[in-house]
Amino acid sequence: MPEPSTNEIVCRFAPSPTGQLHIGGARTALYNWLLARGSGGRMILRIEDTDRVRSTKENVDQIIEALEWLEIDWDGDPLSQAGHQSRHLEVIQQLKQSGHAYEHEGATRLRVPEDGETVVRDLIRGDVTFKHEAIDDFTIARSDGSPLYNLAVAVDDLDSGVTHVVRGEDHLSNTPRQVMILKALEQEPPVYGHLPLLHGPDGKKLSKRHGAASVQELRDAGFLPQAVRNYTALLGWGYDDKQTFFSTDELVKLFSLDRVGRSAAVFDEQKLRWMNGTYLREMDPGQLTVALEAFTGRDGLAGAAGLCREKIQTLADFWPLAGFFFDGPAEDAKAHAKFLDEEGRARLGEARDALATLEPFTDESIENALREVVERLDVKPKQLFQPVRVAISGTTISPGIFESLALLGREESLSRIDKAISAA
Ligand code: GLU
Question: pTM of the predicted model, to two decimals?
Answer without folding.
Answer: 0.93
